[in-house]
Write a structure and sequence with these properties.
799 residues, alpha+beta, nine-stranded antiparallel sheet
């Protein structure tokens, strides 16, 4: 069957071998290697196997069940890949393609594929990849013992094995402790056997993780791309970062993302925006951004969506408002939706410019939903993108700094609506799960061109595998404002983070419902938010989501934790750098660093970076909180109380305390007294280290740049300060720095704070000279002030 496809590859083809026909159902007839892709010709399905990264393979059908050429849509999951040089080997029974430590072995008789890492079988096809005009399916074999992450946003528990779930992004308003279908599904699975499978198909479908057949993993979709990707790793951590390398790393986010957001549904006037900002300023609560929900373009919830322009009665001078906020180092973020109501001021323009999804006859496809009678912007077509983008461009010229895309599942999306993509007419059901992905790509790509010196902020509710490479910052949707709504938030964030969506976060305090304000729930949720990717309280405004509108002690506790988040800015921003450089999540499952048999299913706690273990309080009226700590020594982040890991500990709770531990041997850089992230001064840092005899060696890297350049990672325009500790007979700390960027400080003032010391040191030396220090007998901490050039190495000996 390869002959029908040969014109795609000649003359660069190198034929490896041709096999005699054997009486098998699907025997391999020939294989051909072109660059990093192996073309496999069989007596049924022809397919290709490509090395898309070290230890990663993509399999794509070239013909369908009838032997006809299969018309694949472009890949959404795969990032632009470089050149790879796999090796090929042949025996009498199989052909293998190898890259890195991994191989995919193709059985000649059945053309079934098996995947090996360092000689060990990790996963194999069961029924394999198949396609017809109506359906694409993938079947893989499961071992009895393996556990599975996957499916994206669901509330099912961390190990999703045994579940069947729809692959159809759909809103779940007011969800709590159970949900099988939500805003941002992922057609992907990650196994405790250290592999991931990515089903590169955006169509409506189903993911069966050993439910129908306990030994089978099955993906199915109603048409669309017939392709999947397998990523193999040495460990869970390696599998996570390798998976992100395939789907694309998140660009470095703007530093102001780690500030506090004022947000609600919604601010109804320019004066209300000014008043809420004044309240934050007057009450000494840091603030970096104001988010405007749908009232910026209409006075009512219904009837105005699609205006895409300011309601001048409520916002008479938006440019002045945005400029005033900018002068206070506060960013303006606006909501947009892809629905253009027939009652909106832009309806006729959208129709005239062919910007909307269509019916078969080419007319706009209209339908009713909660906000009114509407059409849907075709974000796949060139005409739809050009029309939609003009409004973003105008708002950007007015000074809008952040973009919030809502309802992008899309919330209502007729299966038979028609989109035009790459000159093909494609039904809505085939592209549904990729809609938010394509929308984010449009916004991000155009912003990078329009504002080449700025990092886009793109907040969106829905997307697909790889959406992170377009700067997408997802949130977990319209969660119930209840303890039940708080409980699944760690699970939701972790399930997204391991597949690259590392900035997944929740509406802090909960969004939907709530008959009366629950001060304890609100406080616990905001405490959790201090150790989350984005700190954004957001809710229906029947109960104020902003801490400035609540009484003490709620407000004072919120202020304390928001200020703590700002103090942690250098640590948090370094997590963003690690993510951009390596694909490492900010929130990490405990199995990421510790024994996965013990921790794979744990959704009560998570690691915030390498240093902090956070356990969210999800029950009211608790005087203590039981937390299982991994092996090792841990310190209470707030009191420095020392805990031995490997058991369950009881954390004593008060309203203003929260279960956060520091791993012994951790460094944490902090910056004090910030009211805005713009106030951050890298020339003055306080660096904490938690010492313990059990840790003989430790290291940490602080990353730093100008906070705004979008090409810091690409061109290496950053510094990496490495802190190391050696703890044998005495404690020695070393500081080294490499790299530079425009505007970096030439000298630094560092305050080193060492925790975990039992007794006052007799002497401290800095680069061989005796140095003064401060000893806090009650807190058992040593403080030491150092001034050094930015590339000067520093050695501290504590004796």
């Amino acid at each position: 069957m390869l002959a029908r496809l040969s014109t795609l590859f000649v003359p660069a083809l190198v034929t490896v071998s041709t096999f005699a026909s054997v009486p098998a159902f699907a025997h391999v007839e020939s294989v051909t290697l072109k660059d990093s892709t192996l073309i496999v010709d069989t007596n049924t399905y022809d397919f290709s196997v490509s090395a898309v990264a070290d230890n990663s393979f993509a399999v794509t059908l070239l013909t369908d069940e009838n032997g006809e050429a299969y018309d694949n849509l472009p890949s959404m999951a795969l990032a632009n890949q470089g050149a790879f040089s796999p090796t090929i080997e042949e025996t009498s029974t199989d052909v293998s393609l190898s890259i890195g430590k991994s191989s995919v072995v193709i059985d000649k008789d059945s053309h079934a594929l098996s995947y090996f890492y360092d000689g060990e079988l990790r996963v194999a096809e069961r029924d394999g990849l198949t396609a017809s005009a109506e359906k694409v399916s993938l079947s893989l074999a499961l071992d009895e013992s393996e556990m599975l992450y996957g499916g994206g946003q669901r509330v099912l528990g961390m190990d999703r094995r045994g579940h069947t779930m729809p692959l159809y992004n759909k809103a779940h308003y007011g969800y709590t402790t159970s949900s099988n279908q939500m805003y941002f599904g992922l057609s992907a699975v990650m196994s405790s056997k250290h592999y991931s499978v990515l089903f590169d198909n955006s169509a409506s479908g189903e993911l069966d993780m050993g439910n129908t057949n306990p030994d089978e993993l099955r993906f199915s979709a109603e048409g669309g791309r017939a392709s999947y990707i397998v990523v193999l790793g040495e460990s869970l951590k390696d599998t996570v970062t390798s998976t992100v390398a395939v789907t694309g790393k998140q660009p470095l986010v703007p530093r102001w993302l780690f500030g506090n957001f004022a947000s609600r549904f919604g601010y109804k006037s320019q004066q209300e925006v000014a008043d809420v900002v004044s309240a934050f300023n007057d009450q000494d609560i840091p603030l970096d951004a104001v988010v405007l929900d749908l009232y910026w373009f209409g006075k009512d919830v219904k009837g105005h969506m699609g205006n895409l322009n300011w309601d001048k009665e409520a916002f008479p001078n938006p440019e002045k408002m945005i400029s005033s906020l900018k002068q206070q180092d506060i960013k303006t973020v606006l909501i947009t939706e892809p629905f253009i109501l027939t009652t909106s001021s832009q309806w006729e323009s959208a129709v005239a410019n062919n910007a909307l999804a269509q019916k078969d006859d080419g007319s706009p496809y209209t339908f009713d939903f909660y906000f009114g009678n509407t059409g849907l912007v075709d974000v796949f077509s060139d005409e739809g993108q050009q029309w939609f983008w003009q409004y973003y461009k105008k708002l950007a010229a007015q000074g809008v700094a952040g973009w919030w895309g809502d309802l992008g599942e899309p919330e209502v999306h007729p299966d038979d609506s028609i989109h035009l993509w790459h000159s093909k007419k494609i039904k809505g059901q085939v592209l549904h799960n990729g809609y938010g992905h394509q929308w984010a790509k449009m916004v991000y790509s155009n912003l990078r061109e329009l504002q080449p010196d700025t990092r886009p902020f793109v907040l969106m509710r829905s997307g697909f595998l790889g959406s992170q490479r377009f700067g997408m910052v997802p949130w977990t949707g319209d969660v119930s404002r209840s303890w039940g709504g708080l409980k699944p938030q760690v699970e939701l964030a972790l399930q997204m983070s391991v597949f690259g969506l590392a900035y997944t976060h929740s509406d802090l305090g909960g969004f939907a419902g709530g008959e009366a304000f629950d001060p304890e729930l609100y406080t616990r949720w905001l405490q959790f938010g201090a150790f989350s990717p984005v700190f954004r309280p957001h809710a229906q405004d029947t109960i104020a989501p902003e801490p400035v509108f609540h009484d003490d002690p709620v407000k004072s506790i919120a202020r304390e934790f928001i200020k703590l988040r700002y103090a942690m800015l250098p640590y948090n921003y370094s997590l963003a750098f690690e993510n951009a450089l390596h694909g490492t999540p900010l929130m990490r499952p405990l199995a990421f660093d510790y024994n996965q048999k013990t921790w794979f299913e744990n959704a009560q706690s998570y690691m915030w970076g390498d240093a902090l273990l956070v356990s969210v309080v999800t029950e009211p009226n608790q005087s203590s909180w039981d937390v299982a700590l991994p092996e090792g020594v841990w310190f209470d982040f707030f009191s420095d109380t020392r805990f031995e890991g490997g058991n369950v500990v009881q954390y004593p709770l008060q309203d203003n305390t929260f279960p956060v531990w520091v791993k012994a041997g951790s460094f944490m850089p902090m910056s004090e007294e910030l009211a805005r992230t713009e106030d951050y001064n890298p020339a003055e840092l306080t660096v904490h280290y938690w010492a313990d005899d059990s840790v003989s060696h430790a290291s940490y890297t602080l990353y730093e740049d100008d906070g705004v350049s979008p090409d810091s990672v690409k061109y290496g325009l950053y510094t990496a300060m490495t802190f190391t500790a050696e703890h044998t007979e005495q404690l020695s700390l070393h500081i080294d720095s490499a790299g530079s960027y425009m505007g970096m400080p030439q000298r630094r003032k560092l305050t080193m704070v060492v925790h975990g010391q039992d007794t006052r040191p007799t002497q401290v030396q800095v680069n061989g000279a005796s140095s003064g220090f401060t000893w806090d007998e009650k807190g058992k901490t040593l403080s030491l002030a150092i001034s050094c050039d930015y590339q000067q190495s520093v050695e501290i000996k504590i004796m």
